[in-house]
Specification:
Length: 488
């Protein structure tokens, strides 16, 4: 029987991931002795180890690399070559990013992967039912796939069928070994691994797990549909998305919230009560710090603000461009708008990183558009818009071309999937297609223009190396196989 006893904290050399991170926020799910040792010796305890209510993916490494993002001007002045936000916001390719911290983004991803590996590698040697062992491994493999998916799309090129077998990817870590120095796989190899993980796991997931922090089957198929979409397997993406929506197709009607007086009065979807959320994952370590993260990274650009129609409740309910409570975080008159952070937990849990049913609708729309089913694609976009816009006239007309339909879906993704990784990943994957690639231009500053800070135009090319985030130097120091995927 496998019985594991850990003293916290402890650091392994190869991946530079501490067991303190590995077991953070799990006190109520595993047995901790009075001396601080963690004992896991049964299948049920390993199953509970899947749960991590505070899965955190802090976005500072990439948040400003987007036409959707904006920030307070004082956050950038003087930092144009010194911080990830300053470099990314001014699209500064000349800056040295190789020694910047990614604020534990890479470390957290691989800490969660090691946590999954701990379960997968050891649970078969414990006492307990085969059913719980199979379920625990399926859930752990689902999360392991998710973390590899985030890692490869952050630290490597987008998947391109023409180059993926040569493009440098990330390390595939499929065993629990704190001393490992794994080789870096190609982008194609990482995607093959992710797809195998999910295809072998999704049917074993439960439709209704014992709590929301275990991955359910709708999430498993939703994640699989997203991976297929990024892998350009359109028919498989369509099928997986349809399966996910058969399991959970709930969309909150924002008209109900609006008609009840807004989020200040209608608070039915706070904390863990949002039925659209398929997985609870955060930009920061939980709902309280998520509010703080949204003060920094919850501002949308003037360009994105203009995309919202006048009857779009996604803007009316959640975003604002005036008010004293946001004055310390927001430049009034910039043309941007900021998320109302209090909505994030006290009134409405949004979940910027975790998957929602709305995203699955948009995956299904794009998969149909890619297959030439334009009327079906428009139908799924319209089902979403009917729950997000007021006035009863919310449908888009069916576009007459595939390119027009996909551009419509891209716009809906920008308005629906705010913050997190969404737009950053989308720009990367669409930039390999001439029809959809985009050169981003940004005029800055807008408000505080003076001799010291003249307004300039900054440009981000579709093939900019900035789209590939460098591995943090701490990880490269510990694993010499982890060479950069950029020419820095």
């Amino acid at each position: 029987m496998a019985r594991l006893l850990f003293s916290l904290p402890s650091l392994g050399k190869g991946l530079g991931v501490g067991l303190l991170l590995l077991f953070s926020s799990c006190d109520s799910y595993i047995d901790i002795t009075p001396k601080g040792a963690v004992t896991v010796d049964s299948a049920s305890q390993y199953y509970q180890l899947v749960v991590n209510p505070m899965r955190c993916y802090y976005p500072s490494a990439f948040a400003m690399l987007s036409d959707d993002a904006w920030t307070k001007e004082s956050n950038i002045f003087g930092y144009e070559s010194q911080t990830p936000d300053g470099i990314n916001f001014t699209f500064n390719e000349q800056a040295d990013r190789t020694n910047l911290s990614d604020n534990n983004l890479y470390e957290n991803m691989y800490a969660y992967i090691l946590r999954s590996n701990l379960i997968i590698d050891n649970i078969d040697d414990t006492q307990g039912s085969q059913d719980i062992k199979a379920l625990a491994k399926a859930e752990a493999r689902t999360f392991r796939a998710f973390d590899h998916f985030l890692a490869v799309n952050t630290f490597a090129k987008a998947y391109d069928p023409a180059t993926a077998t040569q493009d440098g990817g990330v390390c595939i870590v499929d065993h629990y070994d704190l001393e490992a120095t794994p080789a870096k796989a190609t982008v194609a190899e990482v995607y093959d691994f992710i797809i195998r993980e999910l295809e072998s796991s999704v049917e074993l997931l439960k439709e209704k797990p014992e709590n929301i922090y275990h991955p359910n089957k709708a999430y498993g198929y939703g994640l699989l549909s997203l991976v297929y979409l990024f892998h350009r397997d359109w028919e498989k993406a369509r099928q997986a998305a349809e399966t996910s929506l058969r399991l959970n197709s709930t969309l909150i009607d924002y008209n109900v919230i609006n008609n009840a007086g807004g989020l200040a009065l209608y608070k039915n979807y706070n904390r863990d009560n949002n039925p659209e959320i398929l997985s609870y994952m955060w930009m920061a370590s939980g709902w309280i710090s998520e509010q703080v993260a949204l003060y920094y990274y919850g501002m949308i650009s003037p360009e994105l603000k203009q995309l919202f129609e006048s009857n779009d409740l996604r803007y009316k309910l959640f975003l604002r461009d005036t008010g004293t409570t946001i004055a310390n975080w927001f430049d009034t008159g910039s043309g941007a708008a900021i998320w109302t952070p209090a909505n994030t937990s006290e009134r409405f849990t949004y979940m910027a990183v975790g998957m929602r049913t709305a995203e699955v609708y948009l995956v299904l729309a794009e998969a149909n558009a890619r297959l030439g089913n334009l009327a079906e694609a428009a139908n799924y976009v319209n089902q979403l818009r009917a729950k997000r816009l007021s006035g009863g006239n919310t449908d888009i007309a069916t576009p007459t071309s595939q390119v027009e339909m996909i551009k419509t879906i891209i716009a809906e993704r920008r308005k629906e999937l705010l913050f997190g990784f969404h737009r950053f990943f989308d720009l990367k994957r669409f930039n390999i297609e001439p029809e959809y690639q985009k050169t981003i231009t940004r005029k800055f500053p807008v408000v505080n223009i003076d001799d010291a800070h003249p307004q300039q135009t900054y440009t981000l090319r579709p093939d900019s190396r900035l789209y590939i985030i460098p591995f943090p130097h701490s990880a490269r120091d510990k694993n010499p196989n982890l060479t950069l995927n950029t020419n820095e």
